[in-house]
Write a structure and sequence with these properties.
The protein has about 325 residues and is of the alpha/beta class. It folds into three domains: about 20-30 and about 215-310, 4-hydroxy-3-methylbut-2-enyl diphosphate reductase, catalytic domain (Cobalt-precorrin-4 Transmethylase, domain 1, 3-Layer(aba) Sandwich); about 30-115, Rossmann fold (3-Layer(aba) Sandwich); about 115-200, Cobalt-precorrin-4 Transmethylase, domain 1. About 40% of the residues lie in helices and about 15% in strands. It is built from eleven helices and twelve strands. The strands form three sheets. A five-stranded parallel β-sheet has the order 10-9-11-1-12, sandwiched between helices. The relative contact order is 0.20.
């Protein structure tokens, strides 16, 4: 990541010339599930040619979506909007079983780009429901991932988004309650909700391994590492990116001012008044090129020290959907 050298002509400042350094969180940006989803659309275009239809945003980032649109992907709100017999990619967030049924009825060639970690949550919810449990789904009811998981067992699942909702929850059999979670939640807030559920339902069952994905956890931990060093945190991520919003929440909960931005054009220079060190991170759907653009923005304004804090490396990899691997073979 560059941060030294003469660079382009210094931009006219609208804020006091105080910021002296920008620290980058590590890790940040794309997770394995997002990389897999984007590559799924790219490979589908290469194998089948344009157009390839995609149900909803493949990942929650408008820059990624626009880039794929330029290559020939067409994004639809519903599988029922795809022409009969066409190629349809399902987004990384997962879908309810009825989506597969609707796609089959339209003879669509479906390629499932659901993140394997989301598929794990779907399987857990189905299993608990089949065993007769009330399944508490911790998450945000309007989020696509939660909508898809809820569709696995709507008669058995109850959605809980806050500790207060957990405290007020009523179930038919308090001895048979289990929980699963959205993968992109705040680690701390989710822990509080689970603790409240355990107090109310001592026999509560849960996943053997935390449902919150490794990338969400590691990016929140990286932000916490930054907070003792920075006066302001900027989080690159689109408005509908849950994990990006949670990174903002983590900083604000610790008393550090934080703002989510789509790219450098959304930086409000008034935020920088009186700030010496700015922290920068990006959500799991945000490409690294956006981080570079923000760094360039600061460099143009005379900030010479731009460097990562920490050296965390992620080596998680998910294979492409089986439908693509079969076609490629």
């Amino acid at each position: 990541m560059k941060g030294t050298g003469a660079g382009p002509r210094r931009a006219e400042l609208a804020w006091d010339d105080v910021v002296t350094r920008v620290l980058l969180a590590s890790p940040r940006g794309f997770c394995a599930g997002v990389e897999r989803a984007i590559e799924t659309v790219e490979q589908a275009l290469a194998l089948y040619g344009a157009p390839v239809y995609v149900r909803r945003q493949i990942v929650h980032n408008r820059h990624v979506v626009r880039d794929l649109e330029r290559r020939g992907a067409i994004f639809l709100e519903s599988e029922e909007d795809a022409p009969e017999g066409s190629i349809l990619v399902l987004s990384a967030h997962g879908v309810a079983p009825e989506v597969y049924e609707n796609a089959a009825a339209r003879r669509l060639v479906t390629i499932d780009a659901t993140c394997p970690l989301v598929s794990k949550v779907h399987a857990e919810a189905r299993r608990y429901a089949l065993e007769g449990y009330t399944v508490v789904l911790i998450g945000h009811a309007e989020h696509e991932e939660v909508i898809g998981t809820y569709g696995e067992a709507p008669d058995s699942i109850r959605i809980v988004g806050t500790r207060e909702e957990a405290e007020a929850l009523q179930v038919a059999d308090p001895e048979r309650v289990a929980y699963v979670t959205q993968t992109t939640l705040s680690v701390d807030e989710t822990g509080e909700i689970v603790a409240a559920l355990r107090r109310r339902f001592p026999t509560l069952r849960g996943p053997r391994k935390d449902d919150i994905c490794y990338a969400t956890t590691s990016r929140q931990a990286a932000v916490k590492q930054l907070l003792g060093e920075v006066d302001l945190l900027l989080v690159i991520g689109s408005r509908n990116s849950s994990n990006s919003r949670r990174l903002v929440d983590v900083a604000r909960s610790a008393g550090v001012e934080a703002h989510r931005i789509d790219d450098e054009s959304e930086i409000d220079e008034r935020w920088l008044d009186g700030r010496a060190t700015v922290g920068l991170t990006s959500g799991a759907s945000a490409p690294e090129q956006l981080v570079q653009r923000v760094c360039d923005w600061f460099e143009e304004r005379g900030v010479a020290e731009i460097r990562p804090l920490g050296t965390a490396v992620e080596n998680v990899f998910f294979r492409l959907p089986v439908e693509l691997r079969r076609s490629a073979a």
